[in-house]
Amino acid sequence: MKHADPQSPVSFVANVARLPQKGLPVVIEADAAQRAALAGEHELLSVEKYRAELLVTPWKRNGVKVSGRVEADITQACIVTLDPVAAHIDEAVDGLFLPEQSKLGRQGFEGGGEILLDAEGPDSPETFSGNTIDVGALAEQFFGLAIDPYPRKQGVSMEAADDAGTAESEFQQKLRSLLGKS
């Protein structure tokens, strides 16, 4: 058993050896334990709902395309007041995978060819070994990217955190005196 990378709480390993031409539909509906694990991993107060609907299809000769959506209802702590802030995530999932030994993946690097990357376009293909891809972990990556890193309660601004009115904190006073500004 290898413990190389920690397994995603919503791990779903799809066998891509013999994919149907129309694709393999995968639905991941997280149970209470998986939602609690997701909340812990992404520093959320809670995950009320998590659902990923994916389609795993053959791509080019022996590559694999994973597309779909991940939807979730989460509760985060407001960065100002620490009060709970509810949020809904609805994120497109898009990933391309090539077998490790694929020529397509190496051509750009070893063949001296150029690989053009478009910031707005799809990411360059990832590689996989064997006959399986963890499509659940991929969906979780997109879920993680969709989480607001600075959640704020409705109507709360950063100034609202200063309960003492306009009194400066000791740190602010020191900083002001160091910078020579009065």
From TrEMBL:
Entry-linked InterPro entries: YceD
Pfam families: YceD
Top-level lineage group: Bacteria
Protein name: DUF177 domain-containing protein
Native source organism of the sequence: Mesorhizobium robiniae
